[in-house]
Amino acid sequence: MTPPTAVAPPSPDWSRTALGEPAGWPLPLRLTVDILLNSPTAMLLMWGPEQIMVYNDAYAALIGLSSLRAPGGTVPSIQPAAWSWNSAAVRQAWAGDSASYRGVSLPAWRNNGVAQLPVDLYYTPVRTAAAQVGGVLCALAPAQAAPPAEAARPLHMLVVEDNADARYLVCETLRALGHEVHAAASGEDALPELARQSFDVLFTDVSLPGMSGVELARQALRQAPALQLLFASGYGDELTRHLEFPAQSLQKPYDIEQLQAALDQITLRMAARPA
User: Fold this and answer.
1) Which terminus of the chain has fewer CB atoms gathered within 10 Å of its CB, N or C?
2) CATH no. for residue 155?
3) Domain that residue 35 falls in
């Protein structure tokens, strides 16, 4: 018994797929496919009402079909298990909501047969320029061991980022990781939010128009001394390493593993605080 195979050219020839030449694609599709094809994480994209599939080599390797080659770009006769295992998960993403599912068993090809592979799934809606959901991106990873009960609590976070696209992406990523997220475009907009409600984490860009992220953090700590601080900066920790208060920094661009590691450290610090 041999696994099904699919043959694709060494470099993507999109003219042979249902998507056609990339010059005619909407910008969100081009950006998403660029990320997908260059990512070491297994990713699978469902695009448009035709449910066209695009996948990367990491996805082919994870499900065990070494002969399957990126980019896809066709409508499969059988839905990939990442879509078919739970139709409600896909409907939720098409409705505009990100979601994550841990320890889902999906069929994968192993040792000349089909085996159940436990994976973590992260679904993210991909919006068009008209703010409509044009597709759904699914990232897959081998299931991780369940974190301690203390670490499982969602963090209540305020994200401050002046770039609208970056702000949307960060917030959706954090929601997909299970956290409660509010957003502000500037330090001036963030301060009223900090006064209105209690947050676990302030995640702010360092370089903001007007009030800087560092100054925002100082004022935020006056209101909430227990607030955890996470900075994002193109300069790494150069601008934040000598601060008079404790904080973590992520170097832009950062990946989801680095973000998760920073949040894990924050969660552990919070769990270690005296009651």
Assistant:
1) C
2) 3.40.50.2300
3) 14-142
Joined tokens for residue 64? 């065990």
* 179 SS3 class: coil
Q: How far is CA 28 from CA 9, 24, 154, 169, 194, in A?
A: 24, 12, 29, 12, 32
Residue 1 lies in a domain: no
Q: Contact 106/119 with Cβ under 8 angstroms?
A: yes
Contact 158, 121 (CB under 8 A): no
Q: Per-residue pLDDT tens for 151-196? A: 457 999 999 999 999 899 999 999 988 999 999 999 999 999 999 9
End-to-end CA distance of the chain: 59
pTM of the model: 0.50
Same domain membership, residue 22 and residue 129: yes
Check if the beta carbon of residue 120 is closer than 8 Å to that of residue 108: no
Tell me, yes or no, whether 216 lies in a domain: yes
Q: Where are the alpha helices (DSSP H) in the chain?
A: 27-37, 57-63, 81-84, 87-94, 164-176, 187-196, 213-223, 256-272
